[in-house]
Design goal:
Layout (H helix, E strand, L loop, with lengths): L8 H4 L2 E3 L6 E3 L22 E2 L7 E8 L9 E4 L2 E5 L4 E6 L5 E6 L9 E3 L2 E5 L7 E5 L4 E6 L9 E3 L2 E6 L3 E5 L6 E6 L9 E3 L2 E5 L4 E6 L5 E6 L9 E3 L2 E5 L4 E6 L5 E6 L9 E2 L4 E4 L4 E5 L6 E6 L9 E3 L2 E5 L4 E6 L5 E6 L9 E3 L2 E5 L4 E7 L8
Parallel strand pairs: 3-29
Antiparallel strand pairs: 1-2, 4-35, 5-6, 6-7, 7-8, 9-10, 10-11, 11-12, 13-14, 14-15, 15-16, 17-18, 18-19, 19-20, 21-22, 22-23, 23-24, 25-26, 26-27, 27-28, 29-30, 30-31, 31-32, 33-34, 34-35
Length: 385
């Protein structure tokens, strides 16, 4: 059950809930924090990586029932507030330290991809309805703009003060995040379930024809196209001057950013339903076969693999010296990043298929019982540095 604790009044008055349609507004801006997670996968490069000195083990702290299921990227943080989206079209604002609800919004359509923050604006992708990109001003509590682009089932991207959204029908859009004014649009072939990613002057997107596109962020011109031959449903991950994509043919590809040529590919003998995660010297991916596999990012050589009890449906989360992931076997797993040894695990009441999130001294996970579970670091003199 949700635990209630005393917290400073400063945090309590940050938000208050409006009635009616379930909108909300900030009483004052949420101050930025070093632990903020403001965009799906944590960065424009979509690496699912956070540098932290946090060490397991963890103990259960609180849980919160949302009433709706979760997509694979459902968690963001800003200040001391945990933002949780659901496939029922709701946004829940939860005090991260107590599990107490401080706000809720109902957008009426599924939120399959991650929203993002732009200053005091939160922008949502919706998988249905007439208007599928919607921006709300958190200070006024009002919708400030919306655009009709068709269903958006992937996460939004903010890069160089431009908002990017990929519609399911295969169009990449670039907008002014403040006004919703369109800069450009680019057709990228067939259906798109992949989220856009970016670095430097290029935005990357993949489609169900197996094509990966590098696109100029300013004008939408296609710089190069690379063909992996099989459908890509996952998001390109950027790092080390390369683009990493997982294909439906069980292959993980490493493409050169400069020209899209294949630097290496690796057959993992199982489909991948999520993007890999990238640390400084580890490229880590979960598979439908229930394995988590670490490859060297520069040559694809295998470093280690770990077998879970069922499908690993979402991306692992790399935090400091550990790899956090969840499985349909209802377990949370924490492995040592260097050698893939199991360090800690915990079973919850329902299946898990959403990427977990580390925030300060806490671990958040979403389960199929429609609950968000919070675990707090257990201080131990035996925890590694």
């Amino acid at each position: 059950m949700t635990q209630h604790r005393f917290i400073p009044c400063f945090f309590i008055v940050l938000l208050y809930l409006y009635t009616g349609c379930g909108s909300f507004k900030l009483d004052k801006p949420i101050p930025p924090g070093e632990h903020d997670w403001l965009i799906g996968s944590g960065s424009q490069e979509r690496t699912h990586f956070r540098q932290t000195f946090l060490s397991p083990p963890f103990v259960p702290d609180w849980n919160y029932h949302t009433g709706g299921g979760f997509a694979t990227n459902a968690l963001l943080t800003k200040g001391n507030i945990l933002f949780v989206t659901t496939l029922h079209g709701e946004l829940h604002l939860i005090e991260a330290e107590t599990g107490k609800r401080v706000g809720r919004m109902n957008l009426s359509e599924p939120i399959s991809g991650s929203p993002l923050f732009y200053n005091h604006i939160i922008i949502f992708p919706l998988a249905g309805g007439d208007k599928t990109i919607i921006a709300y001003d958190l200070l006024s509590g009002k919708k400030i703009w919306s655009n009709a682009v068709g269903p958006v089932e992937s996460s939004l991207l903010l890069h160089n003060d431009i908002l990017y959204a990929a519609s399911r029908d295969g169009v990449l859009y670039a907008y002014d995040p403040s006004t919703g004014a369109e800069h450009w649009r680019r057709k990228v072939g067939s259906m798109v379930h992949s989220s856009p990613s970016a670095t430097g002057t290029m935005v990357f997107i993949a489609n169900t024809d197996g094509l990966v596109f590098a696109i100029d962020y300013k004008d939408g011109d296609i710089i190069w196209t690379s063909d992996t031959l099989r459908a890509i449903l996952t998001t390109p991950v950027i790092g080390n001057d390369h683009v990493y994509v997982s294909s439906r043919d069980s292959l993980l590809y490493c493409l050169r950013i400069a020209d899209g040529e294949v630097a290496w590919s690796r057959n993992l003998d199982s489909r991948m339903y999520s993007a890999p995660s990238l640390g400084s010297d580890h490229l880590i991916v979960g598979t439908a076969g229930g394995e988590v596999i670490s490859l060297h990012p520069l040559d694809g050589s295998e470093q280690w693999r770990f077998g879970a009890g069922s499908v690993v449906n979402s991306s692992p989360f790399i935090a400091g010296n550990f790899v956090y992931f969840v499985s349909l076997d209802k377990h949370i797993y924490i492995l040592t990043k260097q050698d893939g040894v199991l360090y800690w695990s915990y079973e919850v009441a329902s299946r898990l298929k959403t990427t977990p999130l580390i925030w300060k001294d806490r671990l958040f996970v979403c389960a199929e019982d429609r609950r968000v579970y919070s675990f707090k670091q257990e201080v131990s003199e035996h925890s590694p540095e």
